[in-house]
Amino acid sequence: MAKLKSRYVCQACGSVSSRWQGQCGDCSEWNTLVQEAAQVSNIFAAKHNLQGGGRRLQLVGLDSPAALPERFASGIAEFDRAIGGGIVPGSAMLVGGDPGIGKSTLLLQVAARLASDGRDVVYVSGEESAEQVRLRAVRLGLGTAPVRLAASTSVRDILTTFGDSAAPAMLVVDSIQTMHSDLIEGAPGTVSQVRASAQELVRFAKERGSAVVLVGHVTKDGAIAGPRVLEHMVDTVLSFEGERSHQYRILRAMKNRFGGTDEIGVFAMEGHGLSEVPNPSALFLTNRSEPVSGTSVFPAIEGSRPVLVELQALTVRLASGATPRRAAVGWDSGRLAMVLAVLEARAGMSFAAAEVYLNVAGGYRLSDPAADLAVAAALISALAERPVPGECVVLGEIALSGEIRPVAHLGLRLKEAAKLGFTSAWVPKGTTPVDGLRLSEFTNLRSLTEQLLGR
Ligand code: TYD
Ligand code: MG
Question: What is the model's pTM?
Protein backbone atom coordinates (compact mmCIF):
# COMPACT_ATOMS: atom_id res chain seq x y z
CA MET A 1 0.00 0.00 0.00
CA ALA A 2 1.29 3.44 -0.87
CA LYS A 3 2.50 5.55 2.00
CA LEU A 4 -0.28 7.75 3.26
CA LYS A 5 0.39 11.40 2.57
CA SER A 6 -0.80 13.97 5.05
CA ARG A 7 -3.15 16.72 4.15
CA TYR A 8 -4.74 19.44 6.19
CA VAL A 9 -8.47 19.93 6.22
CA CYS A 10 -10.18 23.07 7.48
CA GLN A 11 -12.77 22.03 10.07
CA ALA A 12 -14.89 25.06 9.30
CA CYS A 13 -15.21 24.98 5.52
CA GLY A 14 -13.74 21.63 4.51
CA SER A 15 -11.10 23.04 2.17
CA VAL A 16 -7.93 20.99 1.81
CA SER A 17 -4.39 22.31 1.94
CA SER A 18 -1.09 20.48 1.57
CA ARG A 19 0.60 22.19 4.49
CA TRP A 20 -0.45 23.48 7.85
CA GLN A 21 -1.40 27.12 8.14
CA GLY A 22 -2.63 29.11 11.11
CA GLN A 23 -5.40 30.62 9.02
CA CYS A 24 -7.51 28.86 6.42
CA GLY A 25 -6.83 30.33 3.00
CA ASP A 26 -10.43 29.86 1.94
CA CYS A 27 -12.67 30.91 4.79
CA SER A 28 -10.07 32.86 6.83
CA GLU A 29 -10.92 31.06 10.08
CA TRP A 30 -8.02 30.70 12.51
CA ASN A 31 -6.72 27.40 13.92
CA THR A 32 -9.17 25.24 12.01
CA LEU A 33 -6.70 23.17 9.95
CA VAL A 34 -6.36 19.60 11.18
CA GLN A 35 -4.03 16.96 9.80
CA GLU A 36 -5.75 14.00 8.20
CA ALA A 37 -4.48 11.05 6.20
CA ALA A 38 -4.89 11.42 2.44
CA GLN A 39 -5.53 8.59 -0.02
CA VAL A 40 -9.11 8.71 1.03
CA SER A 41 -10.25 9.12 -2.51
CA ASN A 42 -8.70 5.85 -3.68
CA ILE A 43 -10.13 3.74 -0.90
CA PHE A 44 -13.42 5.51 -1.37
CA ALA A 45 -13.35 5.03 -5.12
CA ALA A 46 -12.58 1.32 -4.81
CA LYS A 47 -15.30 0.69 -2.23
CA HIS A 48 -17.85 2.62 -4.17
CA ASN A 49 -17.07 1.05 -7.48
CA LEU A 50 -16.23 4.35 -9.10
CA GLN A 51 -13.32 3.08 -11.21
CA GLY A 52 -14.40 1.24 -14.32
CA GLY A 53 -17.28 -1.20 -14.57
CA GLY A 54 -20.05 1.37 -14.43
CA ARG A 55 -23.59 0.47 -15.34
CA ARG A 56 -25.87 2.03 -17.90
CA LEU A 57 -28.23 4.67 -16.63
CA GLN A 58 -31.93 4.47 -17.23
CA LEU A 59 -32.85 7.73 -18.92
CA VAL A 60 -36.36 9.10 -18.61
CA GLY A 61 -38.15 12.10 -20.07
CA LEU A 62 -39.27 15.13 -18.11
CA ASP A 63 -42.86 14.17 -18.78
CA SER A 64 -42.66 10.64 -17.38
CA PRO A 65 -45.19 10.14 -14.65
CA ALA A 66 -43.44 10.74 -11.35
CA ALA A 67 -45.43 10.30 -8.21
CA LEU A 68 -45.11 13.02 -5.62
CA PRO A 69 -43.12 11.69 -2.69
CA GLU A 70 -45.40 9.87 -0.36
CA ARG A 71 -45.12 11.19 3.13
CA PHE A 72 -46.08 9.92 6.50
CA ALA A 73 -46.99 12.34 9.24
CA SER A 74 -45.25 11.98 12.58
CA GLY A 75 -48.38 13.07 14.39
CA ILE A 76 -46.49 15.92 16.04
CA ALA A 77 -48.12 18.72 14.05
CA GLU A 78 -45.45 21.38 14.65
CA PHE A 79 -42.73 18.97 13.46
CA ASP A 80 -44.73 17.95 10.39
CA ARG A 81 -45.41 21.58 9.56
CA ALA A 82 -41.69 22.49 9.65
CA ILE A 83 -40.69 19.61 7.35
CA GLY A 84 -43.39 20.39 4.81
CA GLY A 85 -46.16 18.01 5.78
CA GLY A 86 -44.53 14.77 6.79
CA ILE A 87 -41.55 12.47 6.58
CA VAL A 88 -40.50 11.29 3.11
CA PRO A 89 -39.32 7.64 2.96
CA GLY A 90 -35.79 7.32 1.60
CA SER A 91 -34.93 10.91 2.49
CA ALA A 92 -32.07 12.18 4.59
CA MET A 93 -32.64 14.92 7.10
CA LEU A 94 -30.17 16.88 9.19
CA VAL A 95 -31.36 18.43 12.45
CA GLY A 96 -28.88 20.99 13.70
CA GLY A 97 -28.80 23.09 16.82
CA ASP A 98 -26.76 24.18 19.83
CA PRO A 99 -25.83 21.45 22.28
CA GLY A 100 -28.52 21.18 24.96
CA ILE A 101 -31.22 22.94 22.94
CA GLY A 102 -33.38 19.78 22.83
CA LYS A 103 -32.57 17.93 19.60
CA SER A 104 -32.39 14.52 21.25
CA THR A 105 -35.58 15.21 23.16
CA LEU A 106 -37.44 16.26 20.01
CA LEU A 107 -36.33 13.27 17.97
CA LEU A 108 -37.01 10.83 20.77
CA GLN A 109 -40.54 12.22 20.98
CA VAL A 110 -40.99 11.98 17.20
CA ALA A 111 -39.58 8.43 17.22
CA ALA A 112 -41.85 7.39 20.08
CA ARG A 113 -44.93 8.82 18.38
CA LEU A 114 -44.16 7.02 15.11
CA ALA A 115 -43.37 3.76 16.88
CA SER A 116 -46.61 3.96 18.85
CA ASP A 117 -48.41 4.34 15.53
CA GLY A 118 -46.95 0.99 14.48
CA ARG A 119 -43.95 2.09 12.44
CA ASP A 120 -40.53 0.53 12.83
CA VAL A 121 -38.26 3.22 14.29
CA VAL A 122 -34.65 2.80 15.32
CA TYR A 123 -32.79 5.34 17.46
CA VAL A 124 -29.02 5.01 17.58
CA SER A 125 -27.23 7.18 20.09
CA GLY A 126 -23.51 7.79 19.92
CA GLU A 127 -23.65 10.14 22.88
CA GLU A 128 -25.58 8.26 25.51
CA SER A 129 -25.94 4.61 26.50
CA ALA A 130 -29.15 2.82 25.54
CA GLU A 131 -30.01 2.85 29.24
CA GLN A 132 -29.68 6.65 29.41
CA VAL A 133 -31.92 7.06 26.38
CA ARG A 134 -34.42 4.66 27.93
CA LEU A 135 -34.42 6.61 31.20
CA ARG A 136 -35.00 9.82 29.30
CA ALA A 137 -37.92 8.22 27.49
CA VAL A 138 -39.38 7.15 30.83
CA ARG A 139 -39.00 10.71 32.15
CA LEU A 140 -40.82 11.94 29.06
CA GLY A 141 -43.63 9.48 29.70
CA LEU A 142 -42.71 7.52 26.56
CA GLY A 143 -41.30 4.46 28.30
CA THR A 144 -43.73 2.07 26.64
CA ALA A 145 -43.25 3.21 23.03
CA PRO A 146 -41.78 0.35 20.94
CA VAL A 147 -38.77 2.33 19.66
CA ARG A 148 -35.74 0.13 19.09
CA LEU A 149 -32.62 1.58 20.72
CA ALA A 150 -28.91 1.05 20.34
CA ALA A 151 -25.78 2.84 21.47
CA SER A 152 -23.11 2.83 18.81
CA THR A 153 -20.63 5.08 17.08
CA SER A 154 -19.83 2.75 14.21
CA VAL A 155 -21.54 3.37 10.89
CA ARG A 156 -20.44 -0.10 9.79
CA ASP A 157 -22.24 -1.69 12.76
CA ILE A 158 -25.37 0.33 12.12
CA LEU A 159 -25.51 -0.66 8.47
CA THR A 160 -24.67 -4.29 9.23
CA THR A 161 -27.59 -4.41 11.66
CA PHE A 162 -29.96 -3.90 8.74
CA GLY A 163 -27.84 -5.82 6.26
CA ASP A 164 -30.25 -8.71 5.80
CA SER A 165 -33.26 -7.60 7.79
CA ALA A 166 -35.95 -5.12 6.85
CA ALA A 167 -34.83 -1.50 7.00
CA PRO A 168 -36.72 0.63 9.53
CA ALA A 169 -39.19 3.31 8.46
CA MET A 170 -37.05 5.84 10.30
CA LEU A 171 -33.48 5.71 11.57
CA VAL A 172 -32.30 8.44 13.93
CA VAL A 173 -28.53 8.85 14.33
CA ASP A 174 -27.68 11.06 17.30
CA SER A 175 -25.23 12.66 16.59
CA ILE A 176 -23.35 12.55 13.28
CA GLN A 177 -20.30 14.05 15.01
CA THR A 178 -19.88 10.94 17.15
CA MET A 179 -20.04 8.54 14.19
CA HIS A 180 -17.05 6.75 12.78
CA SER A 181 -16.75 5.33 9.29
CA ASP A 182 -14.03 2.74 8.66
CA LEU A 183 -13.84 3.78 5.02
CA ILE A 184 -11.41 6.51 5.95
CA GLU A 185 -8.98 7.41 8.68
CA GLY A 186 -9.42 10.09 11.25
CA ALA A 187 -11.15 10.72 14.53
CA PRO A 188 -14.94 11.08 14.78
CA GLY A 189 -16.02 14.69 14.49
CA THR A 190 -13.44 15.69 11.89
CA VAL A 191 -14.82 17.01 8.63
CA SER A 192 -13.81 13.97 6.58
CA GLN A 193 -15.24 11.53 9.14
CA VAL A 194 -18.50 13.40 9.43
CA ARG A 195 -18.72 13.60 5.66
CA ALA A 196 -17.92 9.93 5.08
CA SER A 197 -20.30 8.75 7.82
CA ALA A 198 -23.09 10.92 6.49
CA GLN A 199 -22.42 9.75 2.94
CA GLU A 200 -22.86 6.12 3.94
CA LEU A 201 -25.99 6.81 5.94
CA VAL A 202 -27.52 8.92 3.17
CA ARG A 203 -26.80 6.12 0.72
CA PHE A 204 -28.48 3.68 3.09
CA ALA A 205 -31.57 5.94 3.08
CA LYS A 206 -31.71 6.06 -0.72
CA GLU A 207 -31.07 2.36 -1.23
CA ARG A 208 -33.25 0.95 1.50
CA GLY A 209 -36.02 3.55 1.66
CA SER A 210 -35.60 4.46 5.32
CA ALA A 211 -35.97 8.06 6.37
CA VAL A 212 -32.62 8.79 7.98
CA VAL A 213 -32.42 11.63 10.49
CA LEU A 214 -28.96 12.89 11.42
CA VAL A 215 -28.50 15.07 14.48
CA GLY A 216 -25.72 17.65 14.17
CA HIS A 217 -24.36 19.97 16.82
CA VAL A 218 -23.75 23.50 15.69
CA THR A 219 -20.62 25.53 16.20
CA LYS A 220 -20.57 29.07 17.54
CA ASP A 221 -20.67 30.73 14.13
CA GLY A 222 -23.98 29.05 13.30
CA ALA A 223 -22.73 26.48 10.80
CA ILE A 224 -23.55 22.88 11.54
CA ALA A 225 -20.20 21.84 12.98
CA GLY A 226 -17.60 21.23 10.35
CA PRO A 227 -20.24 19.79 8.06
CA ARG A 228 -21.38 22.82 6.23
CA VAL A 229 -20.35 20.14 3.75
CA LEU A 230 -23.24 18.03 5.08
CA GLU A 231 -25.93 20.47 4.15
CA HIS A 232 -25.86 19.69 0.46
CA MET A 233 -25.71 15.92 0.98
CA VAL A 234 -29.06 15.72 2.71
CA ASP A 235 -32.54 16.50 1.42
CA THR A 236 -33.71 18.54 4.35
CA VAL A 237 -31.81 20.73 6.78
CA LEU A 238 -33.66 21.73 9.93
CA SER A 239 -32.37 24.07 12.54
CA PHE A 240 -33.62 23.85 16.12
CA GLU A 241 -33.27 27.27 17.69
CA GLY A 242 -33.99 29.13 20.85
CA GLU A 243 -32.27 30.59 23.87
CA ARG A 244 -31.43 27.92 26.42
CA SER A 245 -32.60 30.20 29.17
CA HIS A 246 -35.99 30.62 27.52
CA GLN A 247 -38.64 27.98 27.17
CA TYR A 248 -39.37 28.43 23.50
CA ARG A 249 -37.85 26.47 20.66
CA ILE A 250 -38.32 27.02 16.96
CA LEU A 251 -37.79 24.30 14.38
CA ARG A 252 -36.97 25.92 11.08
CA ALA A 253 -36.34 24.37 7.66
CA MET A 254 -33.21 25.89 6.12
CA LYS A 255 -33.41 23.68 3.07
CA ASN A 256 -36.06 21.24 1.90
CA ARG A 257 -36.04 19.30 -1.35
CA PHE A 258 -39.60 18.15 -0.65
CA GLY A 259 -41.26 21.33 0.52
CA GLY A 260 -40.97 25.00 1.34
CA THR A 261 -38.49 26.49 3.76
CA ASP A 262 -40.75 29.14 5.13
CA GLU A 263 -42.66 27.21 7.76
CA ILE A 264 -41.63 26.90 11.37
CA GLY A 265 -42.65 24.63 14.21
CA VAL A 266 -42.89 26.15 17.66
CA PHE A 267 -42.34 24.17 20.85
CA ALA A 268 -41.98 24.90 24.54
CA MET A 269 -39.45 22.95 26.61
CA GLU A 270 -41.20 21.84 29.75
CA GLY A 271 -40.53 19.45 32.59
CA HIS A 272 -41.93 16.53 30.62
CA GLY A 273 -40.26 17.36 27.31
CA LEU A 274 -41.28 19.50 24.37
CA SER A 275 -44.89 20.50 23.99
CA GLU A 276 -46.37 21.93 20.83
CA VAL A 277 -47.33 25.60 20.66
CA PRO A 278 -50.02 25.91 18.00
CA ASN A 279 -50.69 29.59 18.72
CA PRO A 280 -47.29 31.25 19.07
CA SER A 281 -48.57 34.83 19.21
CA ALA A 282 -49.86 34.57 22.73
CA LEU A 283 -46.53 33.13 23.75
CA PHE A 284 -44.16 35.82 22.57
CA LEU A 285 -46.14 38.62 24.14
CA THR A 286 -45.21 39.11 27.76
CA ASN A 287 -48.10 39.53 30.17
CA ARG A 288 -49.39 42.86 29.07
CA SER A 289 -51.62 44.94 31.25
CA GLU A 290 -50.80 48.62 31.80
CA PRO A 291 -49.00 50.15 28.80
CA VAL A 292 -45.41 51.01 29.80
CA SER A 293 -43.07 53.29 27.93
CA GLY A 294 -40.45 51.64 25.75
CA THR A 295 -42.50 48.74 24.43
CA SER A 296 -44.34 48.14 21.20
CA VAL A 297 -45.93 45.11 19.56
CA PHE A 298 -44.94 43.99 16.09
CA PRO A 299 -46.91 41.48 14.01
CA ALA A 300 -44.15 39.27 12.57
CA ILE A 301 -44.62 36.63 9.88
CA GLU A 302 -43.09 33.18 10.09
CA GLY A 303 -43.71 31.22 6.95
CA SER A 304 -47.40 31.64 6.40
CA ARG A 305 -48.09 32.26 10.06
CA PRO A 306 -48.36 35.61 11.83
CA VAL A 307 -46.66 35.83 15.20
CA LEU A 308 -47.04 38.84 17.47
CA VAL A 309 -43.87 39.80 19.31
CA GLU A 310 -43.11 42.49 21.83
CA LEU A 311 -40.17 44.85 21.36
CA GLN A 312 -38.66 46.45 24.44
CA ALA A 313 -36.36 49.47 24.44
CA LEU A 314 -34.53 51.07 27.31
CA THR A 315 -32.58 54.32 27.21
CA VAL A 316 -30.31 55.41 30.02
CA ARG A 317 -29.03 58.99 30.29
CA LEU A 318 -25.26 59.15 30.41
CA ALA A 319 -22.92 61.54 32.15
CA SER A 320 -21.38 63.69 29.44
CA GLY A 321 -18.23 62.43 27.79
CA ALA A 322 -18.81 58.71 28.22
CA THR A 323 -19.31 56.62 25.06
CA PRO A 324 -22.91 55.40 25.01
CA ARG A 325 -23.56 51.70 24.56
CA ARG A 326 -25.98 50.32 22.00
CA ALA A 327 -27.00 46.71 22.39
CA ALA A 328 -29.67 44.64 20.67
CA VAL A 329 -30.90 41.17 21.56
CA GLY A 330 -32.94 39.38 18.91
CA TRP A 331 -32.52 42.19 16.38
CA ASP A 332 -29.62 43.19 14.14
CA SER A 333 -27.42 45.80 15.81
CA GLY A 334 -26.53 47.38 12.45
CA ARG A 335 -30.22 47.91 11.79
CA LEU A 336 -30.66 49.39 15.27
CA ALA A 337 -27.88 51.89 14.51
CA MET A 338 -29.62 52.77 11.25
CA VAL A 339 -32.99 53.39 12.90
CA LEU A 340 -31.27 55.56 15.54
CA ALA A 341 -29.48 57.55 12.84
CA VAL A 342 -32.68 58.13 10.85
CA LEU A 343 -34.52 59.18 14.03
CA GLU A 344 -31.76 61.68 14.71
CA ALA A 345 -31.44 63.04 11.17
CA ARG A 346 -35.08 63.01 10.05
CA ALA A 347 -37.19 63.28 13.18
CA GLY A 348 -35.03 65.37 15.48
CA MET A 349 -34.80 62.71 18.23
CA SER A 350 -31.33 62.68 19.75
CA PHE A 351 -30.04 59.54 21.41
CA ALA A 352 -26.45 60.82 21.51
CA ALA A 353 -26.39 61.19 25.28
CA ALA A 354 -28.14 57.92 26.07
CA GLU A 355 -27.29 54.26 26.22
CA VAL A 356 -29.76 52.28 24.13
CA TYR A 357 -30.86 48.69 24.69
CA LEU A 358 -33.31 46.84 22.50
CA ASN A 359 -34.75 43.43 23.30
CA VAL A 360 -37.18 41.15 21.51
CA ALA A 361 -39.29 39.45 24.18
CA GLY A 362 -39.42 35.70 24.65
CA GLY A 363 -36.02 34.96 23.12
CA TYR A 364 -37.46 35.47 19.64
CA ARG A 365 -35.22 36.61 16.77
CA LEU A 366 -36.40 39.16 14.21
CA SER A 367 -34.74 39.99 10.90
CA ASP A 368 -37.74 41.50 9.12
CA PRO A 369 -37.29 45.18 8.14
CA ALA A 370 -41.06 45.50 8.59
CA ALA A 371 -40.25 45.79 12.30
CA ASP A 372 -38.36 49.09 11.78
CA LEU A 373 -41.33 51.23 12.74
CA ALA A 374 -42.06 49.19 15.85
CA VAL A 375 -38.38 49.51 16.83
CA ALA A 376 -38.55 53.29 16.27
CA ALA A 377 -41.77 53.53 18.29
CA ALA A 378 -40.24 51.61 21.20
CA LEU A 379 -37.12 53.81 21.10
CA ILE A 380 -39.00 57.13 20.98
CA SER A 381 -41.37 55.88 23.65
CA ALA A 382 -38.45 54.92 25.91
CA LEU A 383 -36.64 58.23 25.42
CA ALA A 384 -39.73 60.41 25.82
CA GLU A 385 -41.32 58.19 28.48
CA ARG A 386 -44.58 58.18 26.55
CA PRO A 387 -46.13 54.71 26.19
CA VAL A 388 -47.38 53.37 22.88
CA PRO A 389 -51.10 52.55 23.44
CA GLY A 390 -51.38 49.05 24.85
CA GLU A 391 -53.90 47.76 22.34
CA CYS A 392 -51.87 48.94 19.32
CA VAL A 393 -49.58 47.07 16.90
CA VAL A 394 -46.90 48.88 14.87
CA LEU A 395 -45.36 47.94 11.53
CA GLY A 396 -43.61 49.50 8.55
CA GLU A 397 -40.18 49.71 6.99
CA ILE A 398 -38.14 52.88 7.47
CA ALA A 399 -36.17 54.31 4.55
CA LEU A 400 -33.04 56.39 5.10
CA SER A 401 -35.07 59.40 4.00
CA GLY A 402 -37.31 58.91 7.03
CA GLU A 403 -40.20 57.74 4.86
CA ILE A 404 -42.29 54.81 5.98
CA ARG A 405 -42.74 52.08 3.42
CA PRO A 406 -45.41 49.39 3.12
CA VAL A 407 -44.44 45.79 3.93
CA ALA A 408 -45.45 42.32 2.78
CA HIS A 409 -48.43 40.39 4.23
CA LEU A 410 -50.01 43.48 5.79
CA GLY A 411 -53.49 41.96 5.80
CA LEU A 412 -52.41 38.69 7.37
CA ARG A 413 -50.48 40.48 10.10
CA LEU A 414 -53.31 42.86 10.93
CA LYS A 415 -55.93 40.11 11.03
CA GLU A 416 -53.86 38.20 13.58
CA ALA A 417 -53.58 41.35 15.70
CA ALA A 418 -57.35 41.86 15.56
CA LYS A 419 -57.90 38.20 16.47
CA LEU A 420 -55.79 38.62 19.61
CA GLY A 421 -57.75 41.62 20.80
CA PHE A 422 -55.69 44.53 19.50
CA THR A 423 -57.91 47.43 18.45
CA SER A 424 -55.56 49.82 16.62
CA ALA A 425 -52.55 49.73 14.34
CA TRP A 426 -49.87 52.19 13.30
CA VAL A 427 -49.17 51.42 9.67
CA PRO A 428 -47.68 52.84 6.45
CA LYS A 429 -49.93 55.07 4.33
CA GLY A 430 -52.20 53.23 1.93
CA THR A 431 -52.87 50.18 4.11
CA THR A 432 -56.15 48.38 3.38
CA PRO A 433 -58.44 48.52 6.43
CA VAL A 434 -59.08 45.37 8.45
CA ASP A 435 -62.24 44.72 10.47
CA GLY A 436 -61.89 45.59 14.12
CA LEU A 437 -58.70 47.67 13.81
CA ARG A 438 -58.50 51.45 13.84
CA LEU A 439 -55.62 52.39 11.53
CA SER A 440 -53.33 55.39 11.97
CA GLU A 441 -51.34 55.87 8.78
CA PHE A 442 -47.87 57.41 8.74
CA THR A 443 -45.87 58.69 5.80
CA ASN A 444 -42.68 59.56 7.66
CA LEU A 445 -40.91 59.25 11.00
CA ARG A 446 -41.60 62.82 11.96
CA SER A 447 -45.36 62.17 11.99
CA LEU A 448 -44.80 59.07 14.16
CA THR A 449 -42.75 61.16 16.59
CA GLU A 450 -45.47 63.82 16.72
CA GLN A 451 -48.12 61.18 17.40
CA LEU A 452 -46.09 59.67 20.25
CA LEU A 453 -45.11 62.98 21.79
CA GLY A 454 -48.72 64.17 21.51
CA ARG A 455 -47.91 67.23 19.43
P1 TYD B 1 -31.32 17.51 24.75
O2 TYD B 1 -32.46 16.96 23.99
O3 TYD B 1 -30.42 16.54 25.41
O4 TYD B 1 -30.45 18.50 23.85
P5 TYD B 1 -29.48 18.20 22.62
O6 TYD B 1 -29.74 16.82 22.16
O7 TYD B 1 -29.88 19.26 21.62
O8 TYD B 1 -28.10 18.41 23.09
O9 TYD B 1 -31.95 18.54 25.78
C10 TYD B 1 -31.36 18.73 26.98
C11 TYD B 1 -31.92 19.91 27.70
O12 TYD B 1 -33.31 19.92 27.75
C13 TYD B 1 -31.40 19.86 29.09
O14 TYD B 1 -30.79 21.10 29.36
C15 TYD B 1 -32.59 19.64 29.94
C16 TYD B 1 -33.74 20.05 29.09
N17 TYD B 1 -34.93 19.21 29.28
C18 TYD B 1 -36.07 19.74 29.85
O19 TYD B 1 -36.12 20.91 30.24
N20 TYD B 1 -37.18 18.94 30.00
C21 TYD B 1 -37.19 17.66 29.62
O22 TYD B 1 -38.21 16.97 29.77
C23 TYD B 1 -36.00 17.11 29.03
C24 TYD B 1 -35.92 15.68 28.57
C25 TYD B 1 -34.90 17.92 28.87
MG1 MG C 1 -28.43 15.22 22.37
Answer: 0.71
